[in-house]
Amino acid sequence: MDQDARGDATPAISEMSFEDALRALEEIVRKLESGEVTLDRSIDLYERGEALRTHCQARLDAAQARIEKIVTDGQGRASGTAPFDADS
Question: Are 48 and 3 in contact (CB under 8 A)?
């Protein structure tokens, strides 16, 4: 766990599921849109939000790559999966 600017414990982004990261990002957007946070807190929230956005995008990209690796048979039907090789 990390600590945010107020000293509150927050989960490390790298350990968050896509869904948890998306919920955290949505909460940050709500706080920023409310206009009820200080400038310094807004900057901290924005930085965490950007890190969450990057994490979510990476998870989506990885899922897309896995989907694209689904193996099809000669008739175009899914017949299994092939391991995803990030280098290919």
Answer: no
Question: Per the confidence metrics, is the pTM higher than 0.90?
Answer: no
Per-residue pLDDT of the chain (88 residues; tens, 9 = 90+): 444 544 456 789 999 999 999 999 999 999 999 999 999 999 999 999 999 999 999 999 999 888 877 766 667 777 776 666 655 4
